[in-house]
Amino acid sequence: MTDRIRLTGVTKQFDSKAGGALALDSIDLSVRAGEIYGLIGRSGAGKSTLLRTINALERPSSGEVLVDGIDVGGLSAEELRRLRHKIGMVFQQFGLWSSRSVYDNIATPLKLAGWKQDAIRTRVAELLDFVGLGGKAFARPRQLSGGQKQRVGIARAIANRPSILLADEATSALDPQTTGDIVALLRSINEELGITIVVVSHEMDVISRLADRVSILSHGAVVESGDIHQILARPQHVETAALVAPYARTALTDADRQLLRSEHASRRISVVIDDSLVHDPLLSRLAREHGVDFAIIQGGVERVKRRPYGQLSLALHGADGDVDRFVAQLSERAEVAQW
Ligand SMILES: Nc1ncnc2c1ncn2[C@@H]1O[C@H](COP(=O)(O)OP(=O)(O)OP(=O)(O)O)[C@@H](O)[C@H]1O
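A: This is the predicted complex of the input protein with adenosine-5'-triphosphate.
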């Protein structure tokens, strides 16, 4: 797959009287055409600033941002206008014009892009249908719920048929049920319209339901990047583990281990569960072959984007040599930690 977006050495230093903030620190990152890419991190980590460098709402202090191979830093005002037609954006607080109808909110970017009245009418009707707001064309934003407002924001962002959609905390102002509806809408925009999406959130739950790949930001730097399943099942950086832990309650914390050690005197292991261990009954087969019994003492298996991930922690019972051989063979096929 080709890179739709590529950032190389992107640094952003804000000047301020209080000394200035290094919002982005040497970011290297690429987003492939057609994928959903997640950016996650705590408040102030630099997510919004990073997102805004992609449509040149922020200019990096140094480094390069390429969109479809074009350096956005070197564009004239006219070229920038055209770039922004290619890149839609949705915001946490929706960013609607409150005095304009739903129709006008969606039609405005089309008018600015030079669409004809008839084409605008047809396109707005099609968009309202797509986002599930048929019949609301003449409502005002204040008459809509938060979820409906975000649907308008999304319809407006994709009106010009962009190839990229930037979503900045698009669900953070919404309740869990509405969040689920907006997540589903964003997924259908990606799958049905083929739009590449970069989604910023501080919630792993939202990122895990949307993103194919993800970068974790901390203090302006990317501390870890990877496939969403790998990040959930095997977080490497302490910041990632902290974001994953409350969501994926299957991995053990140090405190869990301490408690479990006091409760289970036998040998203990944790096994990362992924597709291979779900489709092949390896655990029970090896246990039977080596005459080892196990008790599951913590963990679980969940599914993200139709693929399983998780961890099981086991207390092993059997003769020392048998347990050794069981662990050795299991380790050849699965990721095993003894503790
Ligand atoms: N226009 C600005 N001027 C000065 N500092 C800024 C500006 N915009 C952002 N910053 C600073 O840059 C850092 C990164 O901010 P950013 O908003 O990108 O983080 P974030 O991860 O999106 O956080 P949040 O989720 O709270 O929005 C913060 O320290 C912030 O205070």
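The mean pLDDT is 92. The longest strand covers residues 3-14.
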